[in-house]
């Protein structure tokens, strides 16, 4: 904490001593973000009135520079483009940035951003994002905070590739910098009101102006949004994925001189929404028609898991037509959840003359509740109660200091900085088996042994009819006891399994404390007027401590372990017994873990950096080549399921916190590119390659979340990473690059006439998992559920993405009226939406189109616009996943392993979070 005290005392000294600021003019940018706003505004209101991408001013290098002069790969999206496209959060940015994609899953708190096909699945809060988000220079610890409606935005910069030598938080894949509108010393503001389908209402506005002329200015932004949901719950007669949120942000800007400024920002967001619904997309059972012959599969007449669920009262309202968006949640479990996100920051900029100092101090709290029905069906299989014990909470303090300046007659532009972060994360979980779980689980065991419905009686002990119990017991003439001498013991175990009802976690607590500090430098040396060399270096230290405790009332698991675990030593019975125990104790949900506490800690440190050589052969053309090394710290899988195998008694009797740990992720990235800029035409081209070692992958297998680090073994694993055996595929040599992302990015802007702008972007990203893959830096075998990954394209990583936009704002007459005609589109090739690459989760290529038409008065004093997002109402998925507990096995496993490999059938039911349908409406806007 001495580092914290030192940084805070520095800030206090700066705040107390503004009179010491020297009245000198320096070419060094002080408040780069605010200067970037004023420079961009000046360019956009230039006398020519012509558009040009070269006019966009960015601060990605912590200096206000023209986009065309920055030798890094970056998308810059202006406020006007965001407004025309209808973007109100970072998801909308992806429509205009082909290398960026954003998806959300079980909650909007679980958002995941990807750049060039690389990102982190957001369901597990223990994993930090490979793509970090900054809002007004403040690091947001998880991408979900960027899904808030954050008011009027000045611009968004999407930096591609590893980051860390220019600002506080490091990242391995890229960064999203969001800059909001700063206070102005001129009085003004705006207001807008939107009404659309799904009864959508959005009201937003801002007011800014001076408090003390030329000394103190203010700005207040506010947004309120409410909308019906896109899904209809036919059981609870309500809608899901609705919107009910508000946001407010207040700012003060103090400028006692041109060389000293303080910007204070405070904001608060509250959401109370039902999210997220999921539909059934595949209910089929697949079988092996020719045992011993690989590659084929057949569709069974019925899925025994679906039959079991139907016999217990399940309905499937989206069967055969998932885009009817009809869902069925357990009666009484249609919970709405509250999310609160608030905090404040102070940015101090002080120009000494030859150098400028920037300090950004921030504190934030984020809390998202997570009650809900997590089997996504009307059977009560698994849920989190709405009792206040299901939430994730972040409390984050960050301090960043940067000092930058010039030397040797502006030949050297230097920057040094430091960063400190203290984050306290608490995850409280109360995941419980529902009232139908025991009956369902027992029926699943019986149906897996024999699909004949006559053997099952869903509401009887063990799901066995009288005939079924007689057959399995061997009392029917011509039959033998199904499990030999252990038949009575195993049938008693199935009977106990069927009694599980409303059992599980009451309050599991995971407290993770993360401290990070870093020192970095970024320097640009102008070798000649046209040739520059950039060098950056960063040292990062990460320390994490985990303390967890468990409260659980699943006594059935404890009984099962005591009775059945000894049978695991019997090779003929081990598979059956392990299955029953796993269903009884899934996720290590057992009273034997109740009252126990675990703890662990570790630290990582790493040197990272960058080197860039840029050359301008002519004024309008810049070329560059770069190397960067990035790093993302290791962490903990905050899910007790990863403590070990649920069917082994010692897993919960003596839990080991170290089992939850995963390794840090590193990347070596290479890039070459060129940027051409003129008034009528801009063109950017980049070729890239990024090699990731120990890539952190989070996968849901239908029962548990698995976190593994993908790395490639230097020696051949002889197919051990693509088989169905968890014991094969261990690496005893060095582990290297596990994921490689390489490709080409093209961006162009055409400005053929005044008030006409056309932009195009294309990203080809060959983002693949390498071969001979293991699951950790120590060489542990890859989980068999991930057998499709080696050699395959990464999940959620389309190889081809094309974006285009066109706008025309012609004058109407000579009285100041103008029109707006705008359209954009994003076309994506096909990709797999699941971390395991199962074929049931494939999303075919698709195109999303947005459009807007409007009429504007003089100086935008008033405007009316009609708009449509997803104009063509394209149906597509965000993420498909294994429906929790509802079957096992994929078509791919039947094809690869078949009956001889343990997959005679695959009856896993699959569900999916769908993307938004077409929305449209009208907006009234005023600006003054």
Task: Report on the architecture of this protein.
With 928 residues, the chain is mainly β. The protein contains twelve helices and 53 strands. The strands form ten sheets. The protein has a 22-stranded antiparallel β-barrel. A five-stranded mixed beta sheet has the order 3-9-10-7-8. The longest helix is centred in the N-terminal third of the chain and has 15 residues, at 2-16. The chain is globular, with a radius of gyration of 29 Å. The two termini are 47 Å apart. Mean pLDDT is 91; it is low at 1-29 and 40-51.
In total, how many beta strands? 53
General shape = globular
Biggest sheet overview: 22 strands, antiparallel, barrel
Radius of gyration: 29 Å
- Strand residues, percent: 35-45%
Cα separation of the termini: 47 Å
Low-confidence stretches: 1-29, 40-51
Share of residues in helices: 10-25%
Instruction: Decide which structural class fits the backbone.
Output: mainly beta
Q: How many helices in DSSP terms?
A: 12
Query: What integer is the average pLDDT?
Result: 91
Short description:
α5 packs antiparallel against α6.
Question: Secondary-structure map with pairings?
Answer:
Elements: H1 2-16, H2 32-44, E1 57-58, E2 65-66, E3 74-78, H3 79-85, H4 90-93, E4 100-103, E5 112-115, E6 118-119, E7 131-135, E8 138-140, E9 153-160, E10 174-180, E11 188-196, E12 200-212, E13 216-227, E14 231-233, E15 238-240, E16 243-257, E17 260-273, E18 279-282, E19 286-287, E20 298-299, H5 304-311, E21 326-327, E22 337-351, E23 355-369, E24 372-373, E25 382-384, E26 391-407, E27 412-429, E28 431-433, H6 437-449, H7 466-473, H8 487-497, E29 503-504, E30 508-526, E31 531-549, H9 555-564, H10 574-585, E32 597-618, E33 621-632, E34 635-636, H11 649-653, E35 661-662, E36 665-677, E37 681-693, E38 695-700, E39 705-713, E40 735-750, E41 756-769, E42 773-774, E43 800-808, E44 811-812, E45 817-828, E46 831-832, E47 842-843, E48 846-856, E49 863-869, E50 877-882, H12 891-896, E51 905-906, E52 910-914, E53 919-927
Parallel strand pairs: 7-10, 14-21
Antiparallel strand pairs: 1-2, 3-9, 4-5, 5-6, 7-8, 9-10, 11-12, 11-53, 12-13, 13-16, 14-15, 16-17, 17-22, 18-52, 19-20, 19-51, 22-23, 23-26, 24-25, 25-28, 26-27, 27-30, 28-29, 30-31, 31-32, 32-33, 33-36, 34-35, 36-37, 37-40, 38-39, 39-40, 39-42, 40-41, 41-43, 43-45, 44-45, 45-48, 46-47, 48-49, ...
Helix pairs in contact: 5-6, 6-8, 6-10, 8-9, 8-10, 9-10
